[in-house]
Amino acid sequence: MPAPPPIYLDNQATTRCDPRVLERMLPYFSEHYGNAASKTHSFGWTAEAAVALAREQVAASLGGNASEVVFCSGATEANNLALRGVAEAYAARGKHIVVAATEHASVLDCARELERTGWDLSIVPVGEDGLVSIPELRAALRETTTVVSIMLVNNETGVVADIPSLAALVHQECPKAIMHCDAVQALGKIPIDVAALGVDVLTVSSHKVYGPKGVGALWRRRRPRLVVHPQVFGGGHEGGLRSGTLPVPLIVGFGTACEIAGRERSEENARLALLRDRLLDGLRSSVGGIVVNGSIESRIASNLNIAIEGVTADVLVSEIGDVAMSTGSACSSASAKPSHVLGAMVSAERARTSIRMGLGRFTTEEEVERAIVCIAAGIAKVRGA
Question: What is the CATH classification number for the domain harbouring 319?
Answer without folding.
Answer: 3.90.1150.10
